[in-house]
Design brief:
Layout (H helix, E strand, L loop, with lengths): L1 H9 L7 H22 L22 H21 L2 H21 L10 H25 L6
Amino acid sequence: MAETDTAAFLSPLSTRSAAERWLIRLAAALVSAGAYLLFIPWDTRNRATAAHPYDETTPVTGLGVTLLAVTLLLLAAYLGHRDHVVWAMLLPAVPPAALMFASFDSHPEQDSPDLWPLAWAFFTAVIFGAVTIAALLGRTFRATEA
């Protein structure tokens, strides 16, 4: 019985029903968004720490970033093993990128150099690159195409 459960948990999504495929994809997107919200706190009270208007405090920690990265990479590898690579790239990467955009965009308009679009683009590219590698790595451990 345990072999059947494990086989179903790791079998390609193309062999599963459409409802199950979309349920797993929705769950993956929710896990990705939830991990971002859990590990990267959203501080709407940005306040200057120095005389420079672009110096703001942040509740983001190195541990939070590491835990988010590990979660997204494991999710991408799992989806890469089970689903098409495109879904395995989009589902872990898009929700954090969208939430990061909303977080950066919600900052008060006190940033004189307005560097947040560059920061968002950089971090989004890093996330997409990392999950792409993880998804392709997960794909290499897939037994055979059904």
